Amino acid sequence: MTDTGKSSQQLIKEANMNLVFRLIHKNGAISRADIKKITSLSATTVSSLVEELIGEGFVEECGIKKTKSSGRKAVMLKVKADGGFFAGLDVKKNIIRADLYGLDFTLEKSIERSLSDGESLAMGIMQAIGTLSRNKKIIGVTIGLPGVIDPGTNSLISSTVLAADDVKDIYSILKEAMPDVDVYIKNNSGLIALAEKEFGNHGRADNLISVDINDGVGAGILVDGKIYEGSGMGGEFGHMSVDFGGRKCKCGSYGCLELYASVPEILSLTETSSLGELAEKLSFGQKKKEVLQVTRALAFGINNIVNLLDPEIIVIGGSVITLGEHFLDAIKESFREIALIKDKKIVYSDIKENPVTLGGVRFSFDRMFGF
Amino acid sequence: MTDTGKSSQQLIKEANMNLVFRLIHKNGAISRADIKKITSLSATTVSSLVEELIGEGFVEECGIKKTKSSGRKAVMLKVKADGGFFAGLDVKKNIIRADLYGLDFTLEKSIERSLSDGESLAMGIMQAIGTLSRNKKIIGVTIGLPGVIDPGTNSLISSTVLAADDVKDIYSILKEAMPDVDVYIKNNSGLIALAEKEFGNHGRADNLISVDINDGVGAGILVDGKIYEGSGMGGEFGHMSVDFGGRKCKCGSYGCLELYASVPEILSLTETSSLGELAEKLSFGQKKKEVLQVTRALAFGINNIVNLLDPEIIVIGGSVITLGEHFLDAIKESFREIALIKDKKIVYSDIKENPVTLGGVRFSFDRMFGF
DNA sequence: TTCAATTTGTACAGTCATTGGACAAATCGG
DNA sequence: CCGATTTGTCCAATGACTGTACAAATTGAA
User: Fold this and answer.
1) Which bases on strand D have an atom closer than 7 Å to a protein beta carbon?
2) Using 50, 70 and 90 to split pLDDT, how confident is the model at A119?
3) Does residue B8 lie within 7 Å of nucleic acid chain C, judged by its CB?
4) DSSP E strand stretches across chain B
5) Considering only CA atoms, which of A209, A223, A265, A261 is closest in space to residue A240?
6) CB A242 within 8 A of CB A297
7) Which of A49, A196, A207, B35 has an alpha carbon within 20 to 30 A of B144's alpha carbon?
8) What distance in Å separates the CA atoms of residue A163 and residue A151, rounded to the nearest whole number?
């Protein structure tokens, strides 16, 4: 059943422990008796697992439940916010964003810094984590970056933005510095999708596509609540072709979505110099025809995804959100015209934090507490 | 950990039992000692699980291992081919194909029949299963059909080919007739993909796309070795648009793949009356230009899938296979021209049996013996 | 032929996470 | 103040697994 050295019984215990912890985490405040009812574990087991969780500092009691029912009052349990911290990093070409989150997913600390002259990416990352971890017990680090990462070795295989050599040994350097902390290096798009599922204000969807529109156009794919990776190079939504007779793209294909819907192309097609300017014009009813080219292409791309994967929801994020509801409505309208599944949910992301670091933190959490 | 009434210990036992059985199944002939080494279960546990499997009639001893090593000779174990039978059905508009497979996946019996006048689909299916099951202990039935099925209730939600009313209660009728047999109703595309993974002669890929080209163009998607279903309506590869300025499709969109690459369109674009005729012409170097329209469109579609999902392999099946290697080569050539990931494996299906029933049987198997 | 060495498979006792029942603790309402 | 009710812990029993001991079977060398 297992290749780890653990015996099956230990695995069961671990699974039940995770189950209980996740339940406490999800519910905010919950009693042992409630846990027993929900999990259908025995009262004894719940008690002993909770005792252990308290011993590890992950859970604490937080007062007495107030109800008007008869009987002994229940002692409530909650996650101990400072029982451990997760660091999430969003690495771009020259900028490192690093966020520290508590066990209850409250943002504790944020750093954003660019690389100083001659500083390597690995050093910059180490530095950032060092700053975050001052006086805090970090139990997980996930680094999101644009590129293909081998999930087995955590090493970068390729990236259009980052130099592979810079990144290649980040994992080993980090691991050496903090041998007992779980470190993950992941593609940023997948982390965004995970963040959308967990922290977006649109019902929790286990099959979800997040579309990220900035300088490029990417997609994160969630299957059964988990980040889909395929052979590692998926999510290149920007190079989905919707017009095989169209312009040649730098990827070698023709009529790729990126030629219509990336931010630079949007600005160029609409002859505006910033998204802010375009947003204003849209609100005055201007540039409708030009924007239609963009939204129609996007609608075709999204429809292609929907026909292929039929996710529960499509979440659009990235800087295009500044274009406002007019833009989203235009996408939806084009979509409805051509779609087979017309009522598919298409929404803007409503996450205020950095979705890459937030998704990264959630990823660490899931790895640590079982999913 | 579980919502079933079973205790965790029972779940462990079941998991280990499945592990052992699948190992025996996969290896053909294997000794208890080998199982111990591979699974790292204790010798005692292996012995007791095997004993139980033999008791249930799923496994039998099959002689002594011949080796020249010293020590006591190992008793070999194999799956008892007639320990139980799986029925797989491929339901089309008016034709029911039903195959019976032994526990070791040897084809035991095949039926193909059309519905007689006034006979309902459910009755036809019942009849077919009845014929198959004569003197045979059926332990699983999976019915593959074109349409959207709710995996929870096993009822048809919609189908472009079958009448929903005909199908709606197949599951309950079957269940009533054979209450202790597992019955599944699944979309046919997914079953094809599963069959490709398990029975195709191209390394076992856990992330695989099967493209089925017949009157329509469909896709089956395998993620982590399991059939991907999304909200249920995925796999509509035929309605992926690759040319948003193209012809209007009956689905409401424009330039869908089905308008280029479905068999009727292929024949029309190449002005031939059958795939056989076209195959012959291709082998004489004729119709190259006309076929290029088809293969180029397909290449764009496949490239879109690859960029989005990056599966390990794309397997093309359906009646287009009769067009032979010329056709496949043309697809690959167009693909290489435009692809970002140029070395992606694209192959024809080499499954000789009916992939829908075969995939269905494998599906039953996986459900029964844990995956 | 006989015996040491080796490998296979079973028997038995011990381990450990879980469970159910008994029970103490705590609270409400009459 | 006491019965009813709910919460949470203690304890013995269950059951699946493991390790050790051991019997069975086979090879090869003395």
Assistant:
1) 3-12, 14-21, 24-28
2) confident
3) yes
4) 30-31, 59-64, 75-79, 85-91, 95-102, 107-114, 138-145, 148-150, 155-158, 182-187, 208-213, 217-223, 226-227, 313-317, 345-348
5) A261
6) yes
7) A207
8) 18
B73 touches strand D (CB under 7 A): yes
Number of Cα atoms under 13 Å in the Cβ half of residue A298 = 29
CB B265 within 8 A of CB B271: no
Minimum mean pLDDT range among A157-171, A301-315, B38-52: A157-171
DSSP states of B287-298 as a string? SHHHHHHHHHHH
Domains of chain A: 8-79 (1.10.10.10), 85-191+355-369 (3.30.420.40), 203-348 (3.30.420.40)
Strands A208-213 and A313-317: parallel
Q: Is the pLDDT of residue B45 over 70?
A: yes
Using the CB atom, is residue A68 less than 7 Å from strand C?
yes
Q: At what angle do helices B32-39 and B43-56 cross, to 10 degrees?
A: 120
- For residues B96 and B114, the answer to whether their CB atoms sit within 8 Å is yes
B234 part of contact set with chain A, CB < 8 Å: yes
DSSP per-residue letters across A66-100:
--SSSSPPPEEEEE-TTS-EEEEEEE-SSEEEEEE
CA distance B166 to B228: 25
* Structure confidence at residue A4 as a pLDDT band (50, 70, 90): very low
CA distances to A178, A239, A245, B279, B285 from B260, rounded to whole Å, are: 56, 21, 14, 17, 20
Cα A323 from Cα A330, distance rounded (Å): 11
User: Could you give the residue ranges of the DSSP H alpha helices within B215-338?
Assistant: 258-261, 263-270, 275-283, 288-309, 324-338
How much is the pLDDT for B165? 67
Q: Is A158 on the interface with B (CB under 8 A)?
A: no
- Give yes or no for A328 touching B (CB within 8 A): no
CB atoms under 10 Å from CB of A284, counted, come to 8
Q: How far apart are CA B23 and CA B41, in angstroms?
A: 13
Show the 3-state SS of B45-83: HHHHHHHHHHHHCCEEEEEECCCCCCCCCCEEEEECCCC
Given a contact cutoff of 8 angstroms between Cβ atoms, the answer to whether B361 and B205 are in contact is no
Question: What number is the average pLDDT over the span A322-333?
Answer: 98
**Cα–Cα distance, B21 to B104 (Å, whole number):** 11
Q: CA A236, CA B344: separation in Å to the nearest integer?
A: 15
Residue A135 three-state SS: coil
Q: Between β-strands A345-348 and A226-227, what pairing exists: parallel, antiparallel or unpaired?
A: unpaired
Q: Rounded distance, CA B219 to CA B242, Å?
A: 16
Helix, strand, coil shares of chain A, percent, nearest 5, are 45, 25, 35
pLDDT at res. A168: 67
Q: Please state, as a whole number, how many other Cβ atoms lie within 10 Å of the Cβ of residue B115.
A: 17
What is the Cα–Cα distance from A129 to A136, expressed in whole angstroms?
11
Contact B189, B118 (CB under 8 A): no
Tokens read off for B66: 């011949």
Q: Cα torsion for B183, B189, B192, B193, to the nearest 10°?
A: -110
Structure tokens at A71: 């009987």
Query: Which nucleotides of strand C are protein-proximal, with an atom < 7 A from a CB?
Result: 5-13, 15-22, 25-29
**What residue type is B211 in one-letter code?**
V
A349 in Cβ contact with A196 (< 8 Å): yes
Distance, Å, B31 CA → D30 C1': 32
Measured in angstroms, the CA of B19 and the nearest CA of chain A are apart by: 7
